[in-house]
Amino acid sequence: MTQTASLGRRAAVECVGTGALVAVAVGAGVQATALSRDAGVQLLACSLATVFGLGVLLALFGPISGAHLNPVVTLAAWWHGRREGAGPGAREAAAYIPAQVAGAIGGAVLANAMFAQPLVRWSTHDRSAPHLWLGEAVATAGLVLLAFGLTRTGRAHLAPVAVACYIGAAYWFTSSTSFANPALTIGRAFTDTAPGIAPASVLPFVAAQLVGLVVGVALAAVLFGRAAPAAAPAAAQDAVVPHAEDQPAASGH
Amino acid sequence: MTQTASLGRRAAVECVGTGALVAVAVGAGVQATALSRDAGVQLLACSLATVFGLGVLLALFGPISGAHLNPVVTLAAWWHGRREGAGPGAREAAAYIPAQVAGAIGGAVLANAMFAQPLVRWSTHDRSAPHLWLGEAVATAGLVLLAFGLTRTGRAHLAPVAVACYIGAAYWFTSSTSFANPALTIGRAFTDTAPGIAPASVLPFVAAQLVGLVVGVALAAVLFGRAAPAAAPAAAQDAVVPHAEDQPAASGH
Amino acid sequence: MTQTASLGRRAAVECVGTGALVAVAVGAGVQATALSRDAGVQLLACSLATVFGLGVLLALFGPISGAHLNPVVTLAAWWHGRREGAGPGAREAAAYIPAQVAGAIGGAVLANAMFAQPLVRWSTHDRSAPHLWLGEAVATAGLVLLAFGLTRTGRAHLAPVAVACYIGAAYWFTSSTSFANPALTIGRAFTDTAPGIAPASVLPFVAAQLVGLVVGVALAAVLFGRAAPAAAPAAAQDAVVPHAEDQPAASGH
Amino acid sequence: MTQTASLGRRAAVECVGTGALVAVAVGAGVQATALSRDAGVQLLACSLATVFGLGVLLALFGPISGAHLNPVVTLAAWWHGRREGAGPGAREAAAYIPAQVAGAIGGAVLANAMFAQPLVRWSTHDRSAPHLWLGEAVATAGLVLLAFGLTRTGRAHLAPVAVACYIGAAYWFTSSTSFANPALTIGRAFTDTAPGIAPASVLPFVAAQLVGLVVGVALAAVLFGRAAPAAAPAAAQDAVVPHAEDQPAASGH
């Protein structure tokens, strides 16, 4: 079935999946803020809801579109695929990324509706500070390293659990609570609730995420080595899972 | 063994399983309310207890009855089976749904007894508001999409973990804390404790869940495509897991 | 290796494993009480620590002794084995149960030492009330039903995760916070800290657990049917996992 | 791929992995302390972040270096390998341990930077008391027993989940919150935040961990028996997983 899914359907899956991810992040944030006055309890709730929700989305949509749900992941997969003649091409990437961003905005609007908030109102939550940008770069580098490393070591099937757990940890160990996803960042600008991010803070966050992407790709090359060249025999193909497989480990937040 | 279980035994499993699910939801709700004054901590406890308990019930009872534990899931399985000549027939559905509702009421009574509450007292917890109904519709649509998608992509064996995690997330990202189950909704009317729902709020909740069922079925058709026709060769059968399998992914909350 | 482990070594494993389980329950209880003033947070910590710790113990010691860690589980395995000529015999049970009780007491003493408490002091925590006994009976019946059902449906390999998650839920949905284990109950009488139980409350708790054992065995017969008779052909053996397997699902809390 | 990874690359993986582990422990500790005034909520957050983060690191780096991330684990693997002619040799251990310590310090510095703390400042958090040392010895003995037992019973593939869950439980049931790792202990001296440890407390902690290592190795010999001698036939090799396998279960915190 995965081979027969049209690009349109795969893009629709990326759109719905990213939307669901943003609805989880925003909805849980609003619920947690409404219920608890302890900011630690709030982040516990948000991080656990995201672990559960993201893991489910990756498992459900992975077989159809790869479940990137994140432009950084799509770009990383395209970059690796470009060198090895596998992974999404420029055409796929050009379809996925706008679908992810549109879905993210839709997810924020849906969460606003579910919690009786104005459907669209710009966030006033300023998140501009150098140490937050460092947090975003670290979070994104780790995500890229994880997605690449799982694929390279033949453990792509662990991606739903591993990526969800990674983000659950990164909520806590990074100062920015780990957005690590440009589409999610844009979507969260469309809600004036606790999980929002002011539009003026979006661009620096996305820039930090792109820096993290580059760092993650470089770190992956150092730690996991380069893929075998295309002329490598079948034995090497066994050891190094190529990016052309149906279900890339790359997956998103 | 699954093939030899009589309809009576399968209905008994649906009854006990749904009862256990309601006992978990109500019991954890009473315990959490008694122990913590922070409503965020209370919902954390309820959501984690449900994730653990629901996952166990689906794993334990799936091989016998399919572990629907939820009329919406039974209806969705019947609908898909009707078209493809598989899944539960009208006779099975007519046995499952009353068993689920009876079990749900029994589970609420048992929870009341375990916490020294009156065995039966109507809930006075009003839950009537449009944004809560939207929450129920979204929660149920997501559940139906998940159950269908896992089956269609050959990952039905992940259902116990995936459905439990989904509900754990939906507790937080939906405004209604995701009942998503008509039997559970009816059962929770029988307890005048925090997790209860006033009888007057039950019908709109169930209606919203049925709307979610329709939305979920439609969304699944868009994102996962239609099943191969009955005349399809064996190769298609491999790619598209038929609904006649012993352990449907559909499973409930 | 499992076949070659002597009865003495298996009993030692039951002793150390049950001791570790009690050390987790008591240690986490003392730590949680010391750190938080919110009783909900305390129970969250205890339930999560037990889920993590119990799952690890069952996975680690299952291949050696079956990881009962609980006299109720040993008795249930003996009862079923008696009828089917498999499972632990009277000799094994007579070795396991004292080892479990001795280990449980040792675990409580170790936890007392780790938290600078008197090594042994009787608990003054009264836990005598009919609704708590009902909670214990329900918790134990569920545990027995789970252990039996997983074995009968060929899912014994899920026991470490399923039993740990079950106890994590039962901490919340039962009024007694689910001891469900006579050895653990006795061990917790040896610590005058929050997780303790006054000696006068021990006997009724154990009696309720034994009632739960009987209810669980009966419920399992109704829901999962009786095992195939010894004369059944190999095909039936495939469908019904016999109790003589190396790693019984039965496992304890 | 695991066979071709050079010692330099494996040491780099140990360095980065241990650094990431310390960044998780320190970062989550700083975040939790900043967000919540309830010390129970703080420890819940730290323990869950560590469970998620440690599990991911073990799954990601296990195929390359074995993912020890802990000098105690490296020493235990060397000890067992020395007797059986497998596991890391003295040369590997001499490369791994300094890499782990260097990485741990780097991870603490990175966490300090992400949270806008001074990059290096000695901790003033005194952790000197006999019952804390007992906690460290118990925590480390359990970790060594777990890593050894999983390997001996052929369940090394469960190590990422099992070790992460073990540490999650040990955060709560030991009085010291389970450092159980000399490199982590040294790294946490480099941050004057809540998760830090004063330099004067480091040496006794490391000494207690080494005592725990010895206790764990002895306990493992009692409970799991000795490995089959090298002259044992292939049948024994099947039952007893040798230490020379590519991905040792031993893994760290």
Structure notes:
- The structure is a homotetramer.
- Chain A is mainly alpha-helical.
- Chain A has a single domain, classed as Glycerol uptake facilitator protein, CATH 1.20.1080.10.
- Chain A is about 70% helix and about 0% strand.
- Chain A is built from nine helices and no strands.
- The longest helix of chain A is centred in the N-terminal third of the chain and has 29 residues, at about 5-35.
- The two termini of chain A are about 25 Å apart.
- Mean pLDDT of chain A is about 90; it is low at about 230-253.
What would CATH call the class of chain A? Answer: Mainly Alpha
Instruction: Name the average pLDDT of chain A.
Output: 89
Number of helices of chain A: 9
CATH fold naming of chain A: Glycerol uptake facilitator protein
Present the secondary structure layout.
The structure is a homotetramer of 253-residue chains.
Chain A lengths: L6 H29 L3 H27 L5 H14 L5 H25 L15 H23 L6 H15 L8 H6 L11 H26 L9 H6 L14
Helix pairs in contact in A: 1-2, 1-4, 2-6, 3-4, 5-6, 5-8
Question: Quick summary of this structure?
Answer:
Chain A is built from 9 helices and no strands.
Features:
9 helices, homotetramer, 253 residues, disordered C terminus, Glycerol uptake facilitator protein, mainly alpha
